[in-house]
Amino acid sequence: MTSTGKVIAACALMIVVCIGALSFWSEVRNELDREWVTHTLLVVEKLQEVRIDITQAETGQRGYMLTGQDRYLQLYGAGVDQVHRDMSELPDLVLDNPREHEATQRLEPLIAARLAELEAGIEVRKRSGLLAGVEAASRRNNGEKWMGQIAAQIGEMRAAEAELLSKRLETAAASGRKMKVIVVGGNTLAIVILLVKGFVIHRETCKRNLAEQNLKHMNERLERRTSELSETNVELESFAYSVAHDLRGPLRHIAGYSNVLAQDYAPQLDMEGQRYLAKVADGAQKMGHLIDDLLSLSKVGLQELSLQTTSLDALVRQVMDELEMDSARRTIEWQISKLFDVKCDPALMKQVFVNLLSNAVKYSGKREHPIIQVGQLEQGNERVVFVRDNGVGFEMQYVGKLFGTFQRLHKTGDFEGTGVGLAIVQRIIRKHGGLIWAEAEPDRGATFFFTLGPPEIKPSSEPELAIKEEAMHV
Amino acid sequence: MSNAVEILLVDDSPEDVELTVRALRRSKIVNEIQVAEDGAEALDFLFCRGAFRDRTFASPPRLILLDLKLPKVSGLEVLQAIRADERTKAIPVVILTSSKEQKDLINGYNLGVNAFVQKPVDFEQFGEAIRQIGMFWMLINQAPPVGGFVETRAQGA
Fold this sequence. Notes:
The structure holds 2 protein chains of 2 kinds.
Chain A: H1 3-67, H2 70-93, H3 98-139, H4 143-265, H5 271-302, E1 308-311, H6 312-326, E2 333-336, E3 341-344, H7 346-363, E4 371-379, E5 382-389, H8 421-431, E6 436-440, E7 446-450, H9 463-473
Parallel strand pairs in A: 2-4
Antiparallel strand pairs in A: 1-3, 4-5, 5-7, 6-7
Chain B: E1 7-10, H1 14-26, E2 33-36, H2 39-46, E3 63-66, H3 75-84, E4 93-97, H4 102-110, E5 115-118, H5 123-140, H6 148-156
Parallel strand pairs in B: 1-2, 1-3, 3-4, 4-5
């Protein structure tokens, strides 16, 4: 996903989370608002009840005053109790509103005064009978006055509560509307963002699919090219092989007949004639070596590797013995250190040592005391085998030509050779996934280094592993 | 027996034939050499047919020197035919060719060749190789008894 895509997705997520939080918060607010509405209604009802209570007390007192019956006295008592109970609840209900609280405090003495008057009337009636009571009641009848004031007070309070109620209803409705706006608007926004995001993802997917298709297409082309190339390579190798092969026939005839000529007709040729004939034979022989080398070179290319765990040590000693037999008259000092066991094609690896060591023998041939070293060193993770001689060496500026086919750094008059040996060595090393390089100085010898690709077997210098390897070989 | 063919040389190159015959003669081991220039002629000779219908199986060559690249019938096909027939299967065959290709070697030995020699370019080496082949198969090696295989089979059956 691109960074823009991530930002868009994060925005959408954040908005959805915010909407959730806001909805929750406004739901809480709304609930609170609705509670206030309920509360206001409760206050109004309570005030109403107080009026009804007082009216009940008055009805009870009046009935007693007229009839003297206890029934009315009980009605009066219940009314008074009810007034007290309701009035005791009222201050708590209006605690939230200081104005109403004050109004309640003003209401209390009025009610107390009215109740006291009613009580006094009952006392007179009890003590002195109907007439005295009626008389006393009419004499000091402030009932209407008290009741008027009480009603006014309650009315005022109810009016205030009504005002509060309408305000609170308005608030509740407003917060409900706000919540609707938040939920609808926010969700719409989130949906829009997700749609945009979906579109962006769709476009990116399209682009990626296209890129993937392109890549696949290019890979296919590359594969085709590679297989074409390797086919061409194999064809070329086969061509080189069959050409070299077919050249051997006529060459054998040239060599054969010049030899026959020399054997049968030598007396009829003068010295110059015999010299020419020798040149023909010599040329044919050289060409024979060239062709053989060319054949080995193209064979390396065509051949499949048959990998086996091989002791490079044994290979080197074998090659050394063969070379010593060839150059029996020369005394070469061989310095061979312990080498790795490696997984390689033993026949090809022997060819590597044959070519490198015979080169070393050849180019150190003019030394009084030729020294040839074979050893190994570790470079980072890689193991490097080297072959060093103290021969004529070469100039490093020509090192690039060293491994080319038919490339020679020395005159044929000085050293014989076809210029294929190192090309074969390089091809074999590369086929093993390794590298080969050289360092030299004119007249101070040359060193050839090579690796054999990723190491699979530990060097035999580690005793434990060496024993294991040997055990495996048994 | 002095006129019996000792070596059948199958090679289509007259130069190779001449040089091979010369090398064999100079080694003074063989006298009677029959040359076949292609595989078909070699088979005619071996199976006493065509131009060789007067020959009998009673006097097979003691050695066949066989080139591989031959017109009409290839060297390997000739070898196959020789080994497939009871009357010729015991005759020693040495492949003498310029090739030392892996597949030729494998096919040759699979078909039961007795030896596989690459013709060296160097004439001295070539001559030496021919001399050694002649010496081994003519003088050192014990030839299979003539007709022995057919008779043994007949008795066994």
